[in-house]
Amino acid sequence: MAEADPLKEYNRKRDFTRTKEPAGKRERRGGNSFIVQKHDATRLHYDFRLEVDGVLKSWAVTRGPSLDPADKRLAVRTEDHPLSYASFEGTIPKGEYGGGTVMLWDEGTWEPVPGKSAKDLAKGHLHFVLHGQRMKGEWLLIRLKPRPGEGKRENWLLRKIDDAYAGPAEDLVGRELTSIKSGRTMGEIAANAPAISLKGKRGKAFDAAMSEAERATPARPAPKRSKLAKAPPFQAPQLATLVDAVPTGNNWLHEIKYDGYRSLVSVAGSRVQVFTRSGLDWTDRFASLAKEVAGMNLPPMLIDGEIVALGPNGNPDFSTLQQVLKGENKGALHLFAFDLLSLDGEDLTWQPNIARKEKLAALLGQGSAHVHLSDHIVGAGEKLFRTMCEAGQEGIICKRADAPYRGARTKNWLKVKCTRRQEFVIVGWMPSTASGRSLRNILLAQHDEQGLVYAGKVGTGFNAQNSERLLSQLKARARQTAALQVPRSEARGAKWVRPDLVAEIAFAEFTSDNVVRHGSFLGLREDKKAKDVSREKVMAVPEQESDVHVSNRDRLIFPEAKVTKGQLADYYEAAGAIMLPWIAHRPISLVRCPQGRAKKCFFQKHDSGSFGDHVKHVPIREKDGDEQDYLYVDDIDGLVACVQMGTIEFHGWGSRVEDVEKPDRLIFDLDPDEGLDFEDVKKAARDIRRTLEDIGLTSFPMLSGGKGVHVVVPLTPEAEWPKVKDFADRFSRALASAEPDRFTATMSKAKRKGRIFIDWLRNQRGATAVLPYVVRARENAPVAVPVTWDELEVIDRPGAYTIADIDKLLARAGSRELRGWGEARQTLPDY
């Protein structure tokens, strides 16, 4: 009996005289490829295909794959496709099966996890690993039980397994907008074929309107793009001060203190160098990580982080790291990245710590198998410290959220240790008389103002491996006399060595004689020079309270919400850590309401100095040619100082003070006419997102806290204001022309009736827009809040969050879902 043709249904559905799709022919080769095609047909979806038995088993994933393990995406089983379909990209004619634009969105290989096979598909589940350009790591497909009336339709769920590649839900479909085959957007692919008019999406009306608007606007030369291919040089790292307690307050970010080698990673595409904290080039020693970073195709940037190896309990372990580096352990090296010092040749060290971390999060995305973003929490450091100590970890690092990066030891970075650990110089050793032991203990020292000072002995922490290796290094450094003064009782029987080996020692305390008590050898520190080893003294936590005095704290600012001036100041002090990436170093205009929101309020953008030293000034040329000093802030004290002067709202330019002529974002403010439902605004935001995606631009939604939603489009600051304004104008008018019953791009109230005004005027020089986490001068003190596109689906009003939700806002700002919100490296298309 002849074997059934698995491609019969595929061929039956297509007229190959009209479509350029390949005819279905089964192949006998046994490969393991997979592809994903972004398909804009009746509605947008992603076709996920696995090679099995000479065909591509296929599922239509309606919302696209998600990196969030908690997100189960519906995947509808479709007909098998031929292997030749793996290279198809183009347009299926309107009226044909699947009519619409097809993009080759991802490709790679797949394999079932050990103990599983492709035959599990027949059982209704498949656990597998993907090695794609965008989809990586472990995934799961599960068939759902059929519901009445579904017939032969098979509904499956596609879910990411929680592993090193897991991440925010929108990191994939929201940011990966171009073809891996041609680099084109969906719009550019569609432009090669007759336009397909799909309601609510980019089609003939939109294209015609954009073209008409373009003809009506004088062409402007595109700015020259700077292409820096060279990896950035080493910079001295910032060091932390040892303190005796965890600092309190929401001005601090708290991270895990990793037990490894501090490293700076310089990268530009495939060019990668890994430096130690002292500037040694250890790229060869960390070759596996360097290769992995090279494969991530990162722009020119300098990353600060820690390289670790995981011990038997899964935690970073310094001894295991040394074994891996010496080839005695086959464990993997991991990089935990926690800071970004430069990007595309631009120095970022002046930016607030939290802003640098946001940029790093957006660039790394979900990272890779061994390259990870070091997470942080805002406030609540004591809880993290207890957790780390209970897990047997070293401690935590606490960093001022608003502090710049300094290549020195400062009190803006603090370290709190669960156990005491320091570096010591080995000055001698004593042989063991016990059977099976060659090394009894080592003699230690540290530097002070007078030179080397004896610091005691350590006789634990040695094993067969490390003691023999250490002994050989000690014998090679033998000398006749001690390099320092050692008490006679301690020196009896000692063998002396040249003092250039550095050991990491864990100990309980220093005794009254200034020697270590209950010390244990952890390993040698080859990344540190002996001359730099001095005693690290524990300091008290520095006072970091705001020195801005807030007067009249009991004055009622929001009568209906019973919010006082003091509570408003406390909100901005607490929220400052999550506001700074968006407000710092940006010209701002203030909405000042000195007597409260219900009384007289006014805008202010200039200052003669009455705001105090914490509020800065930047001279900006105005239309008449004169220069005026505009306001900006660069730390949390600056925010509080503005509140002291009666400020409620902060509105910012679309550019920063370093180059006010080159904006770093577009804002489309969706302002609905009275009577329109918030659901209308949400649908408009989603449609604008889709249209932006078609032309290759990633966008993010923000609840305005007022009447609508802001669609935020980050930009690499290259184009100047005239080009950005021109694009925003043409884009908005094109949308309004395509759907005149829904949208208007003019401020005229008569033309806004029953429509949503796409306010593009915020994208011109000198215009401002409300900034993330700003309190609005409206009833109940609502807040402008960044959200994800998935969250927007279920939110019922633009003022969903208020000043009372500060704890919730702080917690969600550091969540996996919002990681990298508002950050993307992209430029305006030449449209």
UniProtKB/TrEMBL annotation:
<feature type="domain" description="ATP-dependent DNA ligase family profile">
    <location>
        <begin position="326"/>
        <end position="417"/>
    </location>
</feature>
<keyword id="KW-0238">DNA-binding</keyword>
<dbReference type="InterPro" id="IPR052171">
    <property type="entry name" value="NHEJ_LigD"/>
</dbReference>
<keyword id="KW-0436">Ligase</keyword>
<dbReference type="InterPro" id="IPR012340">
    <property type="entry name" value="NA-bd_OB-fold"/>
</dbReference>
<keyword id="KW-0233">DNA recombination</keyword>
<keyword id="KW-0547">Nucleotide-binding</keyword>
<dbReference type="InterPro" id="IPR012309">
    <property type="entry name" value="DNA_ligase_ATP-dep_C"/>
</dbReference>
<dbReference type="Pfam" id="PF01068">
    <property type="entry name" value="DNA_ligase_A_M"/>
</dbReference>
<dbReference type="Pfam" id="PF04679">
    <property type="entry name" value="DNA_ligase_A_C"/>
</dbReference>
<keyword id="KW-0548">Nucleotidyltransferase</keyword>
<keyword id="KW-0227">DNA damage</keyword>
<feature type="region of interest" description="Disordered">
    <location>
        <begin position="1"/>
        <end position="32"/>
    </location>
</feature>
<dbReference type="InterPro" id="IPR014146">
    <property type="entry name" value="LigD_ligase_dom"/>
</dbReference>
<protein>
    <recommendedName>
        <fullName>DNA ligase (ATP)</fullName>
        <ecNumber>6.5.1.1</ecNumber>
    </recommendedName>
</protein>
<dbReference type="InterPro" id="IPR033651">
    <property type="entry name" value="PaeLigD_Pol-like"/>
</dbReference>
<keyword id="KW-0808">Transferase</keyword>
<keyword id="KW-0378">Hydrolase</keyword>
<dbReference type="GO" id="GO:0003910">
    <property type="term" value="F:DNA ligase (ATP) activity"/>
</dbReference>
<dbReference type="Pfam" id="PF21686">
    <property type="entry name" value="LigD_Prim-Pol"/>
</dbReference>
<dbReference type="InterPro" id="IPR014143">
    <property type="entry name" value="NHEJ_ligase_prk"/>
</dbReference>
<dbReference type="InterPro" id="IPR014145">
    <property type="entry name" value="LigD_pol_dom"/>
</dbReference>
<keyword id="KW-0479">Metal-binding</keyword>
<keyword id="KW-0234">DNA repair</keyword>
<keyword id="KW-0269">Exonuclease</keyword>
<keyword id="KW-0239">DNA-directed DNA polymerase</keyword>
<keyword id="KW-0464">Manganese</keyword>
<dbReference type="Pfam" id="PF13298">
    <property type="entry name" value="LigD_N"/>
</dbReference>
<keyword id="KW-0067">ATP-binding</keyword>
<dbReference type="InterPro" id="IPR014144">
    <property type="entry name" value="LigD_PE_domain"/>
</dbReference>
<keyword id="KW-0540">Nuclease</keyword>
<dbReference type="InterPro" id="IPR012310">
    <property type="entry name" value="DNA_ligase_ATP-dep_cent"/>
</dbReference>
<feature type="compositionally biased region" description="Basic and acidic residues">
    <location>
        <begin position="1"/>
        <end position="25"/>
    </location>
</feature>
<keyword id="KW-0511">Multifunctional enzyme</keyword>
